[in-house]
Amino acid sequence: MEHRRLGLSVLRRTVVLSGWMAQKLKRMGAVNLVENQYVAFVRGLASRRGAEVETARCAVPKTESFHGNVPAAGRGGPVVYHKSRMTRATVLKQRASEAGFDLVGIAPLSAWEDLGFSRRWVEQGYGGEMRYLDNPKRDDPRHILPSVKSVVCVGLVYNAPLPYSTEVSRQWSVVSGQLPQTVGAKARTPAPESKISAGSTAHQATDNGLRAKDRGHDSPARAWISRYAWGRDYHEVMRAKLESLRSVIEAFEPGVETRAYVDTGPVVERAFARYSGIGWTGKNTCLINEAKGSWFFIGVILTSLELEPDLPAPDRCGSCTRCIEACPTGALVEPYVMDASRCIAYFTIELKGPIPVEFRSAIGSNLFGCDICQDVCPWNRREPSVLGRQSRQATTSDAAEFQPLEVSSPIRESSFSLFSPPIEDLASLTEDDFRRIFSHSPIKRAKFRGWLRNLCVAMGNSGDPRFVTWLERAREHPDAVVREHAEWALEKLIR
Ligand code: B12
Ligand code: SF4
Ligand code: SF4
To answer: Which protein residue's CA is at the shortest distance from atom 70 of ligand 1?
Structure first.
């Protein structure tokens, strides 16, 4: 540690590094020495203060080690880059930012520990029926691109500035019995974090099990659609940006090969993203960035180009266990390990067949996806707070494509939005409406029958007897899964 600090201060003041100096720094473990010609690229504390980046040439022998911190992922510290690589990595990061990405980092091909973890995870059955996770290509990116040397990882924040699912239900049940109506309007002041007691489960904190009489009969029962699915399909949004970055990489050298994915190929994206330094793996298994929170999508570009890698970000979960305590279905079976076959996101998005009965009540009003373990995470806090010396607050996005879609209601002369939408409006959409409205939304993945199945569960959990008529019709639906879920919901409502 002392060495690291010493190296840092030496590097900050560096103008020219001689061979002797470089050797000394190498012994101290403060620099990454890769080939014969180097450029010491130092931002460190200097960049945090807005000072100019200092660079200096030095000649050092080849070595395998890699130490130091990386400016690109928002941290400072000493790193030594080969000049041509530095130029490329820096240009690439600049272009990523111009393309609109919020995070960028470069991973080497060293995610083996995580890839091994992923394989064992699938073998343990934690992936449920998501067969695509069995694909052996996921174990090694060279199965996709044999020449791959680096993985460029990007993050795009999708956090529209509206309340969290935990806050909405608290406002609903505790504050006024009413929900915010205007989508796109400024978010209400959220319930203070302290009110969501760390020990309470999300099941208690959300409106799960809140019956109509408790809500007040006039306030419509509402569903929760996961934040990531409010707007346009992220595959489409990310794809266009990724393609522009890909062409930058391909222009570096003739013959450079690339493959770009955003949840579209057999790549364990979070593993590479973790090694690229754009975030750490939280106990909720999401990748979390210290400055931005976890509401971001990940994109990866595998390339045959050898780019100077960044370092993994340190784990900042500490002793916190809020996500594990908040998960309504106990899907976070231990810190950092999710049994996806218990996760609400899996049930409502990925699972094609019936949702296991024992989990249906715990799903509450979550109609598509689930945000709870991210809502409660202190790194996603809404209000600035002081942790250490820095003020922190999750980054929000004003990008039009991530704001909640406005849908004209088939049953009234108004529209509703996908932010906490009334179940009644959602249930009035026909299959044609569903296809048309969600053609550019992640929601289409559930398919109409999955959508109806999920609506049955949300209605059953609403405690609102006004859904009985709809459910009685759903009980006659041609699809057996829909029929059975309607039956379950009716049973729950009239019990
Ligand atoms: C399958 C899948 C799911 C499944 C399973 C999720 C899971 N935790 O595995 C379900 C349907 C439940 C799901 C839910 C969600 N997902 Co999803 N999902 C995927 C997908 C397709 C594969 C994930 C996977 O491989 N899981 C297997 C596990 C083992 O891998 P992993 O969790 O990614 O963890 C790796 C590392 O973190 C690390 N690791 C984790 N723990 C440990 C522990 C040890 C000891 C070690 C050594 C390593 C290690 O190793 C793992 C393997 O390399 C990826 C896209 C992709 N192609 O990668 C998106 C992806 C992970 N999902 C994403 C999102 C946005 C979501 C949701 C927020 C959507 C929602 N609101 O409903 C939720 C979040 C729930 C949560 N807490 O994770 C984003 C994550 C963004 C982020 N910042 O983390 C991804 C990357 C898609 C994207 N391109 O943006 N998802
Ligand atoms: S997404 Fe919801 S169900 Fe899944 S682990 Fe997080 S809190 Fe649990
Ligand atoms: S809630 Fe706490 S333990 Fe869970 S991911 Fe966030 S910081 Fe880590």
So the answer is: 369
The per-residue pLDDT for range 185-219, each reduced to its tens digit, is 223 222 222 222 222 333 333 443 344 444 444 67
Residue 54 DSSP SS3: strand
- Name the closest-CA residue to atom 1, ligand 2: 370
**How far is the centre of ligand 2, averaged over its atoms, from the C-alpha of 386 (Å)?**
27
Q: Looking at residue 211, what DSSP letter applies? A: -
Token pair listed for 171: 């406002």
408, two tokens: 């004209």
pLDDT by residue (tens digit) across 125-170?
A: 999 999 999 999 999 999 999 999 999 999 999 999 999 999 986 4
Q: Which ligand is nearest to the CA of 377?
A: 3
Rounded to an integer, what distance in angstroms lies between the CA atom of residue 304 and that of residue 34?
18
Q: Is 263 a catalytic residue?
A: yes
Ligand 3 mutation target, pool 379, 381, 387, 392, most atoms within 8 A of CB: 379
> Which residue is listed with tokens 């019709």?
473
Rounded to the nearest whole angstrom, what is the distance from the C-alpha of residue 284 to the centroid of ligand 2? Answer: 8
DSSP 334-396: ETTEE-GGG-HHIIIII--SPPPHHHHHHHTTEEE---HHHHT-GGG-SS-EEETTEEE----
Of 263, 310, 375, 479, the catalytic one is: 263
Side-chain-side CA neighbours of 461 within 13 Å: the count stands at 26
* Full DSSP string of 275-302: HTTS-EE-TTS-EEBTTTBS-EEEEEEE
